Batch of 2 targets.
Target 1
Amino acid sequence: MQVESVQAAASQREADLSSKLEDYAQKFNDRNVLNDKVAELEKELQLARDAIANQVSHILSLELHIFSW
């Protein structure tokens, strides 16, 4: 009877640990997906910053040209 009790407890512990491992694996995967998304958004942000900087430079160049007349 005691052996069966220990086996049942071990089986329950194994099930609990397996469930926790699955949860951890899902969270790890979710984190990787979010990290990829952040990297993608950072690239888009840099492209937007570069475009804005180019537009500002162009506007300043036009203003300089206009006011130098």
Target 2
Amino acid sequence: MSHQPSRHWASPAAAPASARDRDPAFAFRLRRLPLFLAAAIVMALPASTGAQSVPAFSGRYRFTFTVSRSCPAQMQVGPLSVVMNVSEATITSGAEISGESASPSEDPSNGRFVLQRAGTRLHGPSAASTIEVGLVTEGQYRIWMRVMTDGTAAVSSGGRARASGTALGEVELSLASDASGNPIAGGYCFIYTADHQWSLEPA
């Protein structure tokens, strides 16, 4: 389909003097032309995601996890937290944030999370290696999980990166003092459970 030039975008020289005389609004529209162009340029610019203002994740963080309200009542014990060492590395599609327990008595391979960062959006898995070996929390519990997380990165009051979001997947609770790793009664939440809550705050 051929493009027909609009009379609203014509230059002053392209319009006969008689046309300008007959149309008093013509000059007014021309005076407004730079404003229309400026508005069009601004609208064409990509929206800022705020990613440049959120620094890389690095150092000691507290990973906090709260099970979904749809999990058994025995699991509603409040936020479960694990202090973790977190780092961020650049990858082709953005950045990758990974974390593992900072406890000297914890095997780092017992559990970790890996989140892909695109701007301020975070997405990725968090898991423990086996049901018997989960992550010992700062309280009396050991948490085993296999979840997929989504979240958003932001800047903490201290200027470091922080994050929070939701997770989908299965979670199990056992007592840290129980070497068998067997879950507490009612301590298992189904694999497709949604609306777990998590956060990652500077520690």
